[in-house]
Amino acid sequence: MRQSDYGLELLESITEVQLKRANFTVFNVSEALELVKADILDEIRRANPGCSAEVLSFYISTNFPRNFTLAALLIAECLADYYHAGELIVYEYNRKTCELSERSVKRFIVTNSDLKILLAELQNIQNPKHWLYQSWFGEEIRKAWLEHIQSVFQTLSKHTHNGKEARNG
């Protein structure tokens, strides 16, 4: 998900709104989840200007769950990368120079409630009837994707904890 256009767009939003504000010292999963929810709703509203409340409600009920699944997957991948490497590497775009600067986030704040949300989404997308599972056309590509998802799921499962701050290792 992190390498997809949508994933990069969401990660850029998290970088600009949350990580930059924290000077890239901490990634707060609860805040990131709320941020992507707001971004998804804003995106749906912008894509459907002037429609009735009923039609907008339909678009939200149709598109929000799909986009939230993708956002949760992105955040889960970021957290798994942190657990594996002890840091998360993100890139900050400098609008003046049009260059990217590598930034390292060495601390995550994640609650069991956050993990429960991420793990539920990861579990759901492993179902062969799930739309994301079905979206992979080639069996080899689907198998590689599924192995990746299972790896992320296992990594996050191993780190379920009672505290608030994520620890790697």
Write the layout of secondary structure elements.
Layout: H1 5-19, E1 27-28, H2 29-47, H3 53-85, E2 88-94, E3 99-105, E4 108-109, H4 112-124, H5 131-134, H6 139-158
Overview in brief:
By secondary structure, the protein is mainly alpha-helical. It has six helices and four strands; from the N terminus they run H-E-H-H-E-E-E-H-H-H.
SSE pattern, N- to C-terminal: HEHHEEEHHH
Low-confidence stretches: none
Shape: globular
Q: Separation of termini?
A: 23 Å
Could you tell me the radius of gyration in angstroms? 17 Å
- Output the structural class: mainly alpha
Keywords summarizing the entry:
single chain; 169 residues; mainly alpha; two-stranded parallel ribbon; two-stranded antiparallel ribbon; 6 helices; 4 strands; 62% helix; globular
Describe the protein in words:
The chain is mainly alpha-helical and 169 residues long. Helix content is 62%, strand content 11%. It has helices spanning 5-19, 29-47, 53-85, 112-124, 131-134, 139-158, and strands at residues 27-28, 88-94, 99-105, 108-109. The strands form two sheets. The protein has a two-stranded parallel sheet.
